[in-house]
Amino acid sequence: MEDHEASRVRALGEILMEFDLDLIRVKVGDAEYELVRRELPTSVPVAYASAPALLPSVGVNGAAGVAAPAAAPSAPDRALKVTAPVVGVFYRSATPGSEPFVSVGDRVTVGQPLCILEAMKLMNEITSDFAGVVTRILPENGELVRLNEELFWIEP
Length: 156
Hints:
Largest sheet: 4 strands, antiparallel
Helix content: 10-25%
Number of domains: 2
Radius of gyration: 17 Å
Order of helices and strands: HEEEEEEEEEEEE
């Protein structure tokens, strides 16, 4: 499976789990994807991918699972956290090769664009709810992020 298809299937798996769906079917151009979640008997072990954390994997009998997240760093007490409002792919800039919206050390204002989250080919511009200085950008560019995952730390 190509990386693009794999990321599409992972995103669909995240949506399946996030909304507690049993089935999701999506047609994109000529490609059609169908993911079905089945509960496994308790005596059957579930196989998880050892690849990057937070990516869904397919267990025995086609059941979707989610790898355990890596230990997350803790934010300073003063840090205000910007979190992902949707599951999607995190992009620091509007287009490949262009300057990032913000970098660590930048001062931001309320409503200023911080990043884009791509979810099912929809580009969602994420703006700051806070004014302050960006002290940390947690996901890597192109990384799949989960709902409510921390994206930025901003200190007033």
